[in-house]
Amino acid sequence: MPGIELSSSQVRRILKRKKYSYVWAKYDLGDKQNQLERALFQERLNKYLAVAREYRELLQVWFWDESGFSLRVIRRKNWGKRGQRKNITGQRRRGRINVMGAIRESDRSSSMFLY
C-alpha cells in the first residue's frame, strides 16, 4: 500500500482546520520600563559623551554589556490543541556560557570576554 505524501502547507492547513495553532512564545518587558528614567539617563549620557569628546585625554566612555547562554535546548514552538498545554521532553544538559563585551565610544575600540 503506497504511503500518502503531504506538503508542509497541506499539513498546516489540516492542523489549523482541527483548531491547532503554531505560535512563538512572546516575551515583552515594555511594561517594566520607566520612560521618564530612560529619558533622564539619555540626557545624562549625552552630556558625558559631549565632555568625553571635548576632553579625550581626561575621560573615556565605555559601553559594557553581558549576556548568558544556556546549554539547555528549549523548544519554544510546537503544534498543540488549543486550550491544552503541550509537554515537551528534551535534553536536560546543564551548563552556561557567559559573554561580556565592551566598546569605547571615542574610537570604537572593542573587547570581548568569555567566562
UniProtKB/TrEMBL annotation:
Start and end residues of each Tc1-like transposase DDE domain: 60-111
Domain Winged helix-turn helix: 3-44
Pfam families linked to this entry: DDE_3, HTH_33
GO molecular function: nucleic acid binding
Record protein name field: Mobile element protein
Source species of the chain: uncultured Synechococcales cyanobacterium
